[in-house]
Specification:
By secondary structure, this protein is α+β, with helices and mostly antiparallel strands. About 35% of the residues lie in helices and about 10% in strands. It contains seven helices and eight strands. It is found in: Nucleus.
């Protein structure tokens, strides 16, 4: 199949609707029937199916589906940090908005992500920190001891984290109230 035929085939997975919406009809697409409101958006989405990553970092060679993602990645090489925390007196800066947002939550009183293990009182401002905590070796050992103190040192317990009685989703509490309260 040449490049033209491949392009036609890929485009055949796009179904335009009369209202200007575009649907991905790729087999087993996880988007289901959620539409795109612009053709360029669905073309970028189709790259997730074809693994096409046309935007390459000239420093490390990492490839991206979107030029914007390459631009954000390039800051990891240049050290540029244009996103500054908006809280008065805090001058921390970040290379992307996501990291700045995670940091900004550290100024809140609320730490809505709590470990579900009975003896653990740790709470976090973001789910990724809780996931790191749950995946830690010491946490796994404490969890196993809490479940069955007689088996904490058996070698079979440490074969794989999936052997423990809890999955990460069992341990992570999702926040109920995300209202913002600032530290005083």
């Amino acid at each position: 199949m040449n490049k033209t035929e491949l392009s036609k085939h890929v485009i055949s997975h796009i179904v335009p609707e009369s209202q200007g919406l575009f649907y991905c009809k790729w087999e087993n697409c996880t988007r289901g029937n959620r539409a795109f409101n612009a053709k360029y958006k669905i073309l970028v989405h189709i790259r997730t199916h074809t693994n096409d990553r046309p935007h390459q970092c000239y420093i490390c060679g990492k490839r991206f589906t979107r030029a914007e993602n390459l631009k954000i990645h390039a800051r990891s090489h240049t050290g540029e940090k244009p996103y500054v925390c908006s809280v008065n007196g805090c001058n921390k800066a970040y290379s992307n908005t996501s990291d700045r947002f995670k940091h900004t939550r550290t100024h809140f009183i609320e730490k809505p992500y709590a470990c579900r293990m009975k003896s653990c009182l740790k709470r976090y401002t973001d789910p990724s920190s809780l996931r790191k905590h749950v995946k830690s070796f010491n946490h796994q050992v404490k969890m196993i001891r809490e479940e069955d103190p007689n088996q904490c040192c058996s070698s079979s317990v440490f074969v794989t984290p999936s052997r423990s009685a809890y999955s990460i989703s069992d341990i992570i509490d999702q926040p109920l109230d995300l209202s913002i309260r600032w530290k005083k």
